[in-house]
Amino acid sequence: MHVAEVEEPHAGPGEIRIATRASGLSPGETLIRSGRLRDLVPVSFPYLTGFDAAGVVDEVGDGVEGIVPGAEVFGMSTMTRRAANADHVVLAVWAPKPPSWSWEEAGGAAGAVETATRVLDRLAVPTGGTVLVQGAAGGTGSVVVQVAVARDLQVVGTAGEHNHHFLRSLGAIPTTYGPGLADRVRALVPDAVDAVADCAGGALPELVVIAGDPARVVTIADFDAAAHGVHMSHGAPADETGAALGAGADPFAEHGLADAVALAAAGRLRIPIAGTFPLAAAAAAHALSETRHARGKIVYTH
């Protein structure tokens, strides 16, 4: 991985371009970089990284209304265009940067918010129900917890004991991950768990037992999902069966960014930051992500 000069992108119809202040690192990109996803995500070089970013609008594409150069926003590039870890980024969806968020928070927010919204919408747990979030202290899991709490759900979150105070601060009931999880959850929530959001991977058999039905488990991290009858949700354009959407379909029609702005204004959503790195230290950022113990989102500053 290295920093290089590439051709400057420009906003097309329905897009905006920002001068980037911060951008996020997705754990999935460490898998792409390492080659572990070579069969699922073919890569041609040079491969440009990054999916979510925040910055100041400096170009507005045709057909875009309600925003002008100089506005502060956060948002996402398209899955095919990516390249958000750069000085200038073209965004396909965006929302105003909440004043209460730092640039680092805003730069790492959009992907986690979109994922949390997508997963919780699919699980459709009724108000007052209980959801277990596996891997609740990570960059995505911590946002899933907060969005679920904002939906008036009871949340049980798994994390190492050193992160239990952190989970309580987000509104979750903490417990440790690993063998015996079903018994620990049963002791905490005698009335059973309605659904499980898996943000960590590696524990689907026990998570299915906890949920009582594989249809009540959604994972974003376990590529063995199909073998367990579990739905794997991802940011690529896909419908509820996993088939590719047709041309022109909007995979982010319900991306949740507007709701995130409202939650941030109410003091109900923060983006925990595990570490900030300049782009030149991207290898160190990937190394932190690969420990699988980063508490919150890893971001680049620009």
TrEMBL record:
Keywords: NADP. Residues 1-300 form the Enoyl reductase (ER) domain. It comes from the Bacteria. Signal peptide: none annotated. The keyword Methyltransferase does not apply. The keyword NADP applies. SUPFAM superfamilies: GroES-like (SSF50129), NAD(P)-binding Rossmann-fold domains (SSF51735). CDD domains: MDR_like_2. This is NADP-dependent oxidoreductase.
